[in-house]
């Protein structure tokens, strides 16, 4: 481009006349315009008379546009002689010449990073595009190689690149290296990635023009110009520090509670990263608590510095809380983190309130006076009227402010009804500011009838001050009256019961009566005594429960003492035994005049025997000596064999005489001893 060349034409054989030769330049493939490349694209070359050569001067145009190498054909069209019809001959095969115009102005481009050549991003940006510029020419597809170098980042942990190279298509001006930043929670310092364009190559061989060996190229012009790398082939990408690698410094909490006499450590946390040494300047602001009187700092002043060493995640501001004997309410002061020397940042909780807890009981310690811990009172009757009881409550140590104390009256036994005996059952006692003693006034209600001794606990259950755990309870004992648990005996008139032995066993109930008092359930124990065994009744001893009764004593129901009267086939004489009340759960008493019932079971099953003659035993015998005849028979005693028995029997017989028969009666009495089951008789 921008050069000239002379093409020599030769005239051989004859050299007569002045000959003009017409020529033109045409593109080899018809795809370009000749006039864009050559100053003159056609013309006439003249051979003077006798001249055997002439030249065609070709001048290429300088246009500044990137262009690939182009091939043109210089054609000799015709030759003529001025004023003559003769035509010089253009030699066939030598009427064309190939002209190659070398590539110019980087037709395939110059590859550089687009400005700016440095950039920075945060992990949270996630995606970064680095722009590669193809300036000058954009002819052909090209491949650009690049490398990534870093001293601190790790591929796959800090970043990821999906491309190994760039493909830039024909006509494409911009291309992009896609960098994915991995957003992780790990605190990290800034990291540098250096991207370097290392090579560029043309991918389309059709864009390369070749010339045959030996072609005329006087200046050894480079026909093809490959794509090249420009001056700015390096881009530096900085991944900014992330997740606060030097740390975020703040208090672990906004309020700290401390006690007098403690060496307290106020924790300050270094969140996220722990890189480097950090110095934190803090300031103390007095509130109700005063430096030197209530607390001291390590420096002894209201200012201080807290050091975090490299790798340290927390540190402590040390405070000495001064112990004194003065009762004090809550006192406070504040610590503020003001600035940091280093690269760490302050967090959100930069001020902490330090509360010195209440000390030495400024509102007092509440409890019953020792003279009121246990109180015994009589049980008033309606004629005497209700009884007032006063219990003293002390407030010791501090007497600051108004303090309320709630109390309750609590029973000590399941059946106690507090509201029936004492009023009020709960209330609130108030100590005004400066007051150290107050009184609980209770009323013991008057009642009729027997009463058990009852103990009630008056308990301090809540206070805006402090309760003394050893003095929160006091007892009030109301004396008993009469026989509240009652006297138990058999029902009036029940002194004996008579029974026939039953054919089947039956349950027998004996009514009990409870008089004088019916408080609480009681168990009455009994036993059978006298002429009785387990074959007669079951059980031989037992108990009966008489429940608590809230109604009138006279309306108390009667309950039965029960046992089972057994049936048997054994012959028995009349039995007499007692069911006796032996005891009751204390303090219930047994009525000695009604503590036994006599049980009589009449004789049963022929206890003295059932007599009969054994028919098989009847026979007549003969005394050979006296020639007397005897009637012999056996008498059987069945069932009972109890006691001696007298048995009378009668023998009636007929004496058949010679003239008439005579009926005779023979009577006899036998004695059957106790226990004998039979005997022999002879008449």
Write a structural description:
The protein has 683 residues and is mainly β. The protein has one helix and 51 strands. It has a five-stranded mixed β-sheet, with no helix packed on it. A five-stranded mixed β-sheet has the order 8-16-14-10-12, with no helix packed on it. Strand 47 (610-623) and strand 48 (628-638) form a beta hairpin. The protein starts with a strand and ends with a strand.
Q: Which secondary structure elements does this structure contain, and how are they paired or packed?
A:
Blueprint: E1 4-10, E2 19-27, E3 42-47, E4 53-59, E5 70-81, E6 96-101, E7 110-113, E8 118-121, E9 127-135, E10 142-149, E11 159-161, E12 165-168, E13 174-181, E14 191-202, E15 228-229, E16 234-239, E17 248-251, E18 255-258, E19 263-271, E20 278-286, E21 295-297, E22 303-308, E23 314-321, E24 331-341, E25 345-346, E26 351-356, E27 365-368, E28 374-377, E29 387-396, E30 403-411, H1 418-421, E31 422-423, E32 426-431, E33 437-444, E34 454-463, E35 466-467, E36 473-478, E37 487-490, E38 496-499, E39 506-515, E40 522-530, E41 537-538, E42 541-546, E43 559-565, E44 575-584, E45 589-590, E46 596-601, E47 610-623, E48 628-638, E49 645-656, E50 661-672, E51 678-682
């Amino acid at each position: 481009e921008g050069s000239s060349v002379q093409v020599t034409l030769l005239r051989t054989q004859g050299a007569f006349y002045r000959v003009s030769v017409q020529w033109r330049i045409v593109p080899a493939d018809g795809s370009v315009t000749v006039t864009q490349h050559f100053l003159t694209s056609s013309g006439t070359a003249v051979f003077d008379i006798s001249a055997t050569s002439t030249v065609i001067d070709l001048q290429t145009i300088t246009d500044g546009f990137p262009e690939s190498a182009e091939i043109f054909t210089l054609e000799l069209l015709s030759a003529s002689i001025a004023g003559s019809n003769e035509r010089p001959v253009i030699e066939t095969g030598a009427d064309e010449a190939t002209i190659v115009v070398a590539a110019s102005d980087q037709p395939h481009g110059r590859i550089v990073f687009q400005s700016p050549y440095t950039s920075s991003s945060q992990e949270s940006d996630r995606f970064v595009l680095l722009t590669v510029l193809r300036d000058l020419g954009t002819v052909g597809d090209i491949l650009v190689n690049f490398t990534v170098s870093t001293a601190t980042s790790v591929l796959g942990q800090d970043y990821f690149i999906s491309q190994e190279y760039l493909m830039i298509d024909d006509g494409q001006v911009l291309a992009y290296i896609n960098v994915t930043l991995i957003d992780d929670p790990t605190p990290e310092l800034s990291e540098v990635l250096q991207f370097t364009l290392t090579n560029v190559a043309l991918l389309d061989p059709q864009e390369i023009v070749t010339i045959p060996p030996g072609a005329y190229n006087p200046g050894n012009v480079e026909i093809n110009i490959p794509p090249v790398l420009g001056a700015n082939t390096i881009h530096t990408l900085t991944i900014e520090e992330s997740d606060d690698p030097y740390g975020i410094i703040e208090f672990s909490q906004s309020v700290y509670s401390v006690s007098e006499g403690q060496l307290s450590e106020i924790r300050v946390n270094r969140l996220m990263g722990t890189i480097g040494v950090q110095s934190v300047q803090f300031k103390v602001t007095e509130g109700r608590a005063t430096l030197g009187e209530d607390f001291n700092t390590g420096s002894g002043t209201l200012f201080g510095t807290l050091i975090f060493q490299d790798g340290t995640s927390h540190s402590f501001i040390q405070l000495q809380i001064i112990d004194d004997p003065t009762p004090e309410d809550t006192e406070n002061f504040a610590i503020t983190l003001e600035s940091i020397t280093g690269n760490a940042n302050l967090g959100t909780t930069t001020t902490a309130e330090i509360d010195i807890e209440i000390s030495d009981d400024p509102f007092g310690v509440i409890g019953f006076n020792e003279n009121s811990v246990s109180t015994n009172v009589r049980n008033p009757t309606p004629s005497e009227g209700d009884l007032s009881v006063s219990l003293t409550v002390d407030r010791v140590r501090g007497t600051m402010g108004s303090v309320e104390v709630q109390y309750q009256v609590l029973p000590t036994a399941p059946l106690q009804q507090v509201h029936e005996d004492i009023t009020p059952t709960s209330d609130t006692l108030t100590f005004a500011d400066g007051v150290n003693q107050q009184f609980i006034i209770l009323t013991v209600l008057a009642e009729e009838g027997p009463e058990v001794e009852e103990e009630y606990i008056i308990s301090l259950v809540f206070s805006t001050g402090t309760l003394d755990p050893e003095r929160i309870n006091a007892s009030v004992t109301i004396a008993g009256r009469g026989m509240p648990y009652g006297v138990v005996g058999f029902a009036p008139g029940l002194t004996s019961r008579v029974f026939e032995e039953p054919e089947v066993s039956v349950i027998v109930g004996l009514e009990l009566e409870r008089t004088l008092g019916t408080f609480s359930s009681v168990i009455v124990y009994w036993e059978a005594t006298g002429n009785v065994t387990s074959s007669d009744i079951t059980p031989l001893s037992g108990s009966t429960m008489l429940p608590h009764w809230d109604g009138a004593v006279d309306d108390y129901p009667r309950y039965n003492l029960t046992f089972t009267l057994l049936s048997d086939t054994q012959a028995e004489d009349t039995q007499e035994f007692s069911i006796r009340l032996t005891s009751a759960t204390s303090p219930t008493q047994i009525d000695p005049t009604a503590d036994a019932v006599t049980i009589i079971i009449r004789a049963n099953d022929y206890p003295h025997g059932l007599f009969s003659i054994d028919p098989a035993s009847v026979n007549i015998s003969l005394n050979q000596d006296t020639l007397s005849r005897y009637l012999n028979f056996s008498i059987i005693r069945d069932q009972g064999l109890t006691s001696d028995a007298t048995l009378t029997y009668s023998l009636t017989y007929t004496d058949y005489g010679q003239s008439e028969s005579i009926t005779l009666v023979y009577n006899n009495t036998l004695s059957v001893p106790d226990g004998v089951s039979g005997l022999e008789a002879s008449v």
